[in-house]
Amino acid sequence: MKRHNDRSGVLSAASVLALVGALVLVLMGTSPAGTSGPGSGAKVPAGLSAPGSSVIGYVPPGLTIGRSFPAQTKSIADFTFRGGADALITARTDKGLRAALSTGLIALANVRCWDEHAWNPTSDHPLGKACDMFQAYTTSSGRAVGWRLANWFVANQAALGINYVIWQDKIWTAGSPKAWGPYYSTVYGCPDDSNITGCHMDHIHVSFY
Q1: What mean pLDDT comes out for the span 177-188?
Q2: Peptide bond before 191: cis, by omega within 30 degrees of 0?
């Protein structure tokens, strides 16, 4: 609700600044970790495992894997990116993204899903089936948070329809679910720890069916 100056009926300077600040938060997506929108206080949805291990490449014993999911095309506006008409994601990606935000392990401002990715024709980003979640990778604590989130995706693979996860030059796939392995890419020349973004040293890539 707008607050008016009691004497003039005009918004005070402080009120104007507050409104502008709120608008910037909404437009730029700078919500705090653990929310799917400014101040939402979202919780991990029912039926999903809570974040657990930060062990590098952890795979839960007896993990249930799902590989049969209905085909989806991008149809929902990507709220991580103010793009054009093509900036859309699938319903499955939207669900997985909101669930990840609810864990408190990633902030909306550090996520990007849809992207043209013209240099990589096999990418899931232009299909609206992938998100990149950037981490504080230069510190041990930041990498540990990244592994907690990456492992959380693996633990909830069947519920969220995860196809594969890449983080720190390693990859886990639903097709080979027993262990993480080296991430190989001819596009980015991986594995190569010095290729910070191409080999996913600084961000988790998650692709959905």
Answers
A1: 95
A2: yes
Which position has the token pair 């005070």?
12
Assign 61 to helix, strand or coil: coil
Closest CA to 169 of 145, 133, 141, 198: 198
What is the maximum alpha-carbon separation in the chain?
Answer: 69
Mean pLDDT, all residues of the chain: 83
Structure tokens at 78: 């990507």
Q: Would you say residue 30 has pLDDT above 90? A: no
CB 164 within 8 A of CB 140: no
Q: What is the per-residue burial (b if ≥16 Cβ within 10 Å, else e) of 165-177?
A: bbbbbbbbbbeeb
In this model, does residue 11 exceed pLDDT 60?
Answer: no
Q: Is 27 helix (H, G, I), strand (E, B) or coil?
A: helix
CA neighbor of 128 nearest in space, from 85, 188, 168: 85
Q: Kindly report the pTM of this predicted structure.
A: 0.79
